[in-house]
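Exercise 7b. Backbone tokens:
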């Protein structure tokens, strides 16, 4: 029997221009072993995976220290292509699928050729030489291995987000001789039932001898799935344990270095004013994978209103439609005035702001510094952070005020960065999410939509983000509409929760209602009961 570990990391170190993000990281991974890698946002998890995978950004920023051994041989991949050839597959936090292509086409395209321009050039040739039937067969095999119901011919642009994730993973599985699969927060975008399917699929892969590095902020998943857990804090391993020797609480404490108390609902129905600030009537939204058919509800002034539901039922479509990002119809009235739909500017001008679930696509100016990101919308739509000079003849950017504003949010949201001038692209996923929130708060909206605000955020930061939303609501009287696939998160923060089912509201209840009641609404109990009448 071969006793050499599949992967050995020996004293890996990495800095980005003097900012030390990994120090002396060492661990082994056996064949067929599932290793859970956890740590706060910015602890260095993704950077470590980028090193293993030979990503260009590592070389371009001065390389790394230490050694990587694969099956006992030292390796140093010059590009992801080399890593793939050696049998390492990686599914990233952000999708890299081609929207216009079907699941099959995406599954069988090589990751190294998924850059858009390159693909467009080669696509015709590739399709001519490929055997479509064989492609279909291989894609189906990979889909079957995952044990999911995925239409292999559906274009990615029409898929709900969970299916996009499955397509990404199936693509890695379709590679021959895969030995190590790295999954960076694969369940962050999945519903609980989809996540369960994924977890059993990963278990099957491990049984076939494939080793897995599984990065997740959902610690119960780590315990349920992994053999061992490696905990990173500030770029150093603080603990490596077999999962049977630890618990969710212990892992959480080791990650943040302090104990964390729970988050309980604070009911306050009696404090809320009766008047409705937002009224939505017969809203429909044409958003791929999240179609809203006919939704009506009203939100009270100063309320935190939750919108939940399973993936693909339309909950994400509601803010995206009201904010003018997807084609919508119906009547939306804010503070007594009708809001023009299909016009993002109209929604912003009315005093509404949106923290999108798609932080890379809609949320951030990735190549710009943090202060610019945070102040941008306020400057554009409200003329703030602009100072008049020469007696008002010229308007100039008030860089000092912008920097101060950014620093205030960096402190209050504990954004891990080198300063207000750091570029958004260089931040870890969770810290980018905090910047999106800061950007929305900076506009001082009257109504704030937040969609999946804690997706990809670690346990400590999650509480911080929820606390911040609550504080802004309580102190500034901002009405909040929060869309989330995590019911407990909605219950801990909201006053009332609406559940969306098949593009319609299945019911609206106070957040203090039992979880099971909401669960039943999610699976369409009310819909079926009506059908039976
Ligand atoms: N290209 C880059 N240039 C400069 N700094 C970077 C770059 N990429 C990452 N960093 C820094 O390295 C640190 C670790 O980031 P990394 O993305 O590895 O964290 P993470 O543990 O994956 O966090 P998350 O859970 O939020 O995804 C962060 O402080 C980040 O700002």
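Sequence design result:
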């Amino acid at each position: 029997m071969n006793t050499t570990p599949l992967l050995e990391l020996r004293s890996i170190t990495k800095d980005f221009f003097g900012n030390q993000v990994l120090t002396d990281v060492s661990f082994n991974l056996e064949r067929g072993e599932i290793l859970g890698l956890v740590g706060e946002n910015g602890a260095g998890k993704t950077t470590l995976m980028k090193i293993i995978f030979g990503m260009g950004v590592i070389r371009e920023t001065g390389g790394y220290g230490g050694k990587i051994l694969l099956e006992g041989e030292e390796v140093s991949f010059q590009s992801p292509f080399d890593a793939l050839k050696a049998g390492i597959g990686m599914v990233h936090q952000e999708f890299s699928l081609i929207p216009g292509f079907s699941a099959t086409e995406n599954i069988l395209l090589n990751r190294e050729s998924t850059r858009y321009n390159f693909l467009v050039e080669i696509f015709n040739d590739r399709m001519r030489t490929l055997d479509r039937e064989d492609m279909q067969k291989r894609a189906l095999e990979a889909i079957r291995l995952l044990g999911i119901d995925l239409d292999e011919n559906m274009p990615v642009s029409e898929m709900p987000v969970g299916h996009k994730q499955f397509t990404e993973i199936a693509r890695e599985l379709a590679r021959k001789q895969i030995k190590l699969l790295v999954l960076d927060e694969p369940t962050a975008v999945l519903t609980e039932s989809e996540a369960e399917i994924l977890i059993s699929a990963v278990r099957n892969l491990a049984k076939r001898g494939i080793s897995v590095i599984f990065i997740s902020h959902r610690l119960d998943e780590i315990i349920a799935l992994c053999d061992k857990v490696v905990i990173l804090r500030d770029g150093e391993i603080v603990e490596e344990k077999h999962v049977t020797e630890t618990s969710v609480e212990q892992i959480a404490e080791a990650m943040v270095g302090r104990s964390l108390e729970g988050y309980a609902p604070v009911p306050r129905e009696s404090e809320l004013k009766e008047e409705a600030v937002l009224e939505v009537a017969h809203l429909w939204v044409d958003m791929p994978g999240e179609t809203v058919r006919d939704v009506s509800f009203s939100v009270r002034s100063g309320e935190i209103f939750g919108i939940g539901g399973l993936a693909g039922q339309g909950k994400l479509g509601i803010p995206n439609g009201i904010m003018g990002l997807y084609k919508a119809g119906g009547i939306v009235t804010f503070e007594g005035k009708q809001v023009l739909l299909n016009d993002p500017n109209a929604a912003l001008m009315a005093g509404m702001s949106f923290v999108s679930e798609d932080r890379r696509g809609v949320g951030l100016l990735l190549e710009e510094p943090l202060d610019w990101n945070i102040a941008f919308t306020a400057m554009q739509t409200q003329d703030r952070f602009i100072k008049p000079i020469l007696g008002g003849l010229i308007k100039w950017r008030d860089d000092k005020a912008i920097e101060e504003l950014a620093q205030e949010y960096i402190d209050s949201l504990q954004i891990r960065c080198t300063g207000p001038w750091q570029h958004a692209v260089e931040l870890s996923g969770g810290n980018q999410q905090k910047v999106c929130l800061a950007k929305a708060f900076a506009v001082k909206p009257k109504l704030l939509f937040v969609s999946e605000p804690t997706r990809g955020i670690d346990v400590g930061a999650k509480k911080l983000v929820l606390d911040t939303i609550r504080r802004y609501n309580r102190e500034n009287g901002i009405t909040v509409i929060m869309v989330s696939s995590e019911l407990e998160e909605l219950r801990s923060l909201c006053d009332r929760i609406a559940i969306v089912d098949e593009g319609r509201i299945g019911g609206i209840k106070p957040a203090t209602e039992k979880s099971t009641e909401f669960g039943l609404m999610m699976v369409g109990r009310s819909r079926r009961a009506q059908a039976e009448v």
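Instructor comment: The two ends are 64 Å apart (CA to CA). Residues 16, 21, 39, 41-47, 57, 61, 416, 426-431, 458 surround adenosine-5'-triphosphate (CB under 6 Å).
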